[in-house]
Structures are given as structure tokens and as C-alpha cells.
Amino acid sequence: MKKNRISKCNLGFGSSLRILRRKRNIPLNRLSELSGIQIATLSRMETNKMVGALKSYVNIAKVLKMKLSDLFIELESGI
User: N or C: which end of the chain has fewer CB within 10 A?
Assistant: First the structure.
């Protein structure tokens, strides 16, 4: 059981964000348009090359129609 939890944690926050976005069938460019976050920034966030600002996550949560706390729970759990 611990092994699965470790592998999920290794995905990283950004990878979890990408999985969540894809599960909701939202293309990266559409998330960019709706959230006001540049595509390059979202891409860097999803590939774990940068951590987004809190405001970015607030905007992403709004687009995904989630509470911010629920978004972080989803991201932390590795989806």
C-alpha cells in the first residue's frame, strides 16, 4: 500500500494538475483563456518546472468549478 502512495507522490503537483484537466476534457489553451494564465506558465506548472502563484490556483479552481481546498486535496492525492 505504501508503494502506491509513494508512486502517486512522485507524480508531482503539476502532473496531477494535468491529469485533472484532461479528465475534465479541458485543453490547455482553453484553461489558459478561462483562467487568464499564459499557456507557457500552465505548461511549466504541469511539467513541474515551476510552482504557480496562489492566484493562479484560485483561477484554475474557478475554471474547474472547484473550491480551492478541493483542488489542493485532488492535487496532493495524485488524483
Answer: N
| DSSP, res 47 | T
CA pseudo-torsion sign 75, 43, 59, 31 = negative
Residue 30 amino acid letter: R
The answer to whether the CB of 41 falls within 8 A of the CB of 52 is yes
Cell digits for 5? Answer: 502512495
How far is residue 51's CA from residue 14's CA, in Å, rounded to a whole number?
8
pTM for this prediction: 0.79
* DSSP codes of every residue in 20-46: HHHHTT--HHHHHHHHT--HHHHHHHH
Amino acid residing at 76: E
